[in-house]
């Protein structure tokens, strides 16, 4: 490809054709399980969490973009590990910067370590008396400089349509949750991140059936709410089609009015907790979607998928490996991650676009990014 003056070393590699860098990142994910889950830095983070819980102080996990979803995943797993002794709360970094919680603990999630709002949120938490931790792939970063306890994940995502940037904090959260009392088997985690040939075939079938819609709605309950949000972001970043995430119950209260035969509804149903109630409501949701002409698909486990009739997923379903050897939140998050990422990648292939630069090869989108990334006015200013 001819040299582009705007394409500096700060950008991902600019390729003319697939395989995109995003694909290589997805394929590397199973190998992250063992090193992240065995990192002793997770013990330091777990101890900071434990001290805050013992004092009855708040726990916040902060992030932006994909890292906000990572923060939600970390909070979900820590809360499960605490077993009623306390809760971790995911917060959007800008809001946490403006309104820090006093004392307690704050864990920042910043894959590349430079997100201004997250760095500022960590600084605000420190000024409020909180112990500050970080999960990142960038050890020498602004975020790391502001952290007392840093877990450094081993692979930096080389695509800006982040996939490793989502899975790494999930694994980091699992490691911290293990330090807080959960049992997390690294081999089972690696297995959950691995896609079989049959699953790959199902991904391609679903992608082909959904290709060409005008918009996507992604739907989840429990831990699957996090995966639904991440899928919506990946579709918008990679496929360049509008996508919105909704909680399972939320979608049934007014949002159908704006949907029609141009809408694809993708249900994620992998959380085994209260699965009977969730599957029953999901089945109603899918039937409602079909009644107005939406195409419907699902990402399920063998167990959760049994509660959804075959005819309710007109575009097909992706059955992920059984994650029951892992704690419910960890198993759900890890099992759904590669499925939603491979689905996005297949939709990218059908759309014929390059996902890696999230459209910054186009000048107007570079300009928009430059405006958004200009200096941030912080609570300390």
Give a structural overview:
- α4 packs antiparallel against α15 and α10 (197-210) packs across α15.
- The relative contact order is 0.14.
- The chain has helices at residues 21-28, 33-37, 41-54, 66-82, 93-98, 116-127, 142-145, 164-179, 186-192, 197-210, 224-239, 248-251, 275-291, 302-305, 328-351, 363-372; strands spanning 59-63, 88-92, 105-109, 131-136, 149-152, 215-220, 243-247, 263-269, 295-300, 317-319.
- Helices cover 47% and strands 14% of the residues.
Short description:
This protein has 381 residues and is α/β, with parallel strands linked by helices. It has 2 domains: 21-189, Glucose-6-phosphate isomerase like protein, domain 1 (Rossmann fold); 195-351, Rossmann fold (3-Layer(aba) Sandwich), CATH 3.40.50. 47% of the residues lie in helices and 14% in strands.
């Amino acid at each position: 490809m001819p040299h582009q003056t705007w394409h500096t070393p700060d950008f991902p590699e600019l390729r003319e054709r697939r395989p995109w860098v995003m694909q290589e990142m997805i394929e590397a994910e199973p190998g992250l399980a063992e090193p992240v889950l065995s990192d002793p830095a997770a013990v330091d983070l777990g101890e900071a969490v434990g001290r805050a819980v013992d004092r009855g102080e708040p726990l916040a996990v902060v992030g932006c973009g994909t890292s906000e979803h990572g923060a939600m995943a970390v909070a979900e797993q820590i809360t499960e590990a605490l077993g009623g002794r306390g809760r971790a709360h995911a917060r959007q970094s800008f809001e946490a910067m403006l309104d820090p919680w006093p004392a307690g603990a704050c864990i920042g999630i910043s894959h590349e370590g430079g997100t201004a709002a997250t760095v500022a949120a960590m600084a605000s938490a420190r000024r409020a008396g909180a112990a500050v931790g970080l999960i990142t792939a960038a050890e020498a970063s602004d975020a790391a400089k502001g952290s007392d306890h840093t877990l450094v994940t081993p692979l930096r995502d080389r695509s800006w349509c982040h996939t490793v940037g989502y899975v790494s904090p999930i694994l980091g959260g699992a490691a911290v949750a293990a330090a807080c009392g959960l049992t997390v088997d690294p081999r089972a985690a690696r297995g959950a991140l691995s896609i079989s040939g049959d699953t790959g075939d199902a991904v391609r079938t679903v992608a082909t059936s959904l290709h060409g819609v005008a918009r996507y709605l992604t739907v989840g309950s429990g831990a699957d709410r996090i995966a639904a949000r991440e899928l919506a972001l990946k579709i918008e970043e990679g496929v360049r089609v509008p996508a919105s995430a909704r909680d399972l119950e939320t979608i049934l209260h007014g949002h159908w009015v704006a949907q029609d035969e141009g809408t694809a509804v993708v249900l994620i149903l992998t959380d085994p907790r209260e699965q009977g109630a969730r599957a029953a409501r999901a089945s109603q949701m899918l039937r409602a979607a079909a009644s107005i002409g939406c195409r419907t698909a699902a990402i399920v486990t063998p167990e959760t998928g049994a509660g959804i009739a075959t005819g309710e997923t007109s575009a097909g379903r992706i059955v992920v490996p059984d994650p029951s050897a892992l704690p419910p939140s960890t198993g759900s998050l890890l099992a759904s991650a590669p499925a939603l990422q491979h689905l996005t990648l297949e939709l990218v292939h059908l759309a014929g676009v390059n996902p890696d630069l999230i459209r910054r090869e186009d000048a107007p989108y570079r300009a928009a990014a430059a405006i958004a990334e200009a200096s941030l006015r912080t609570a300390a200013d």
